[in-house]
Amino acid sequence: MRLALLGCGTVGSEVVRLLHGQAADLAARIGAPLEIAGIAVRRLGRDRGDLPVDPTLFTTDALGLIKRDDVDVVVEVVGGIEPARGWLVEALRAGKSVVTANKALLAEDGAALHDAAAEGGGDLYYEASVAGAIPLLRPLRESLHGDRINRVTGIVNGTTNFILSAMDATGAGFAEALEEATELGYAEADPTADVEGFDAAAKAAILASLAFHTRVGAADVHREGITEVTAADVASAKAMGCTIKLLCIAARGADAAGREAVSVRVHPAMIPLGHPLASVGDAFNAVFVEAEAAGPLMFYGRGAGGAPTASAVLGDVVAVSRNRLAGVRSPSESAYADLPVRPMGEALTRYHISLDVADRPGVLEAVAGVFARHDVSIATVRQGPAGGGAAGRGEDADLVIVTHVAPDAALAATVGELRGLDIVRSVASVLRVEGGL
Ligand code: NDP
Ligand code: HSE
After folding, report:
1. Ligand 1 pocket, residue 130 CB under 6 Å
2. What is the dihedral of CA 411, 414, 418, 420, to 10 degrees?
């Protein structure tokens, strides 16, 4: 079985090490030895340390390598949309099997890859694209195919989970926690994809597509990052027995017209400390799947890093290699349900709202009236002197309101109207609340 490896960076170099270190076991498991036919990189002269590989295998001609007749399996660990899309479509159309970790490409144009795989007859596997080492996509696409998945809730970005965990543990602000994540090598030099939620949104799209047998792309996912989360939000969550996590939530539900639909969103949210995802700390990932017959299932592990991600890549390489030797391919994409994706405004959620208000008679009534006008039910109200210090009548007060479940659009409109009230000095923070309280 001959592999073309595209990319030899953080993940690719660990793929090479695993292929070398476990060559005999892999050959025994597959039924044939695995050999690297070539490795495409950007810089031939880059120092690759003590990588156990013949240096003459490196090339900058990825397309030429893919097209070689002696290549059976193409492993793509380069990332980005182009040229990766062109390479993989070419490989799949030519009947080669493809293993990729490229969540950005799968979420942007997974359809092009699946269509090319169907045309060429090879396999398309991408376990490493979501939650690194955690075996998650295979269970969704195979083990749970006899069941009906209703909801997937996950922490799928290690960098942001590290930052939020550090803010929770030390009371640090976002910028300080990001600096620590960068120093420890979790966050990239440009952390935008992580902290603005793009990375998690791509993974959410992949999860939703598999869970609901529907093509969901990155553009269908409502996305908010963690850059606006403050130390005060974290403290407020703690005071309520909660913690803040960047969640990806994909759920079934009826749309405004009563048709079955899905909603897919990524945003920071408060979850109670008793929630299974609350104890997921550091750069770990975890995904909570709720299926009709199976009930709740929890998947936990390392969602990033060279070796953990390479483990998932190699698992896929073994699977597609076995298939090729047996002359079979795995079932193709399952998108038969083709459910509509609901707009964020229809998503049912709860809000935790912190207001700085004038401390005088009638203020609570005015604030409650805004919620009532938008048909949003208040669950709890907590009032204290502004800033937590001693204050008398006529000064400001902190008002913390937690709502019952309501459509996101109604909650957003409520907050909008609150901002316009003269008794509301400021809306200090607005956070969604998930997982009961
Ligand atoms: P790196 O940036 O570390 O490595 C990228 C590799 O691709 C490098 O070897 C680089 O070459 C090569 N490359 C870049 N552009 C080209 C090009 N035009 N032609 C040929 N080779 C090229 O990325 P990672 O290993 O971190 O990530 C790879 C993929 O895995 C991405 O899709 C990422 O999203 C995904 N992933 C990564 C995880 C992680 O923890 N790092 C976790 C899960 C998924 P050179 O070495 O010469 O620079
Ligand atoms: N940047 C990603 C993360 C890498 O922090 O989770 C794994 O996909």
Report:
1. no
2. 120
304 Cβ inside 6 Å of ligand 1: yes
Other C-beta atoms within 10 Å of 80: how many? 11
Q: Whose CA is closest to atom 6 on ligand 1?
A: 7
Domain presence at residue 223: yes
pLDDT in tens, 382-406: 988 776 555 444 578 999 999 999 9
344's tokens: 């964020």
295, 164: one domain: yes
Q: Do the domain assignments include residue 331? A: no
Average pLDDT rounded to a whole number, residues 337-365: 94
* Nearest-ligand number for the alpha carbon of 305: 1
Catalytic residues: 203
Same domain, 159 and 280: yes
What is the amino acid identity at position 374?
H
Q: What is the largest CA-CA distance in the chain?
A: 82
User: Is the same domain home to 151 and 296?
Assistant: yes
Asked if pLDDT for residue 20 goes beyond 50, the answer is: yes
CB-ligand 2 contact for 304 (6 Å cutoff): yes
Examine the domain organization and report whether 39 and 57 are in the same domain. yes
Q: Which one of the ligands is nearest to 106 CA?
A: 1
How many angstroms does the Cα of residue 170 sit away from the middle of ligand 2? 23
Look up the pTM and report it. 0.95
Quote the ligand 2 centre to 204 CA distance (angstroms). 13
Domain limits at 262?
138-302
Whichever domain contains 213, its CATH number is 3.30.360.10
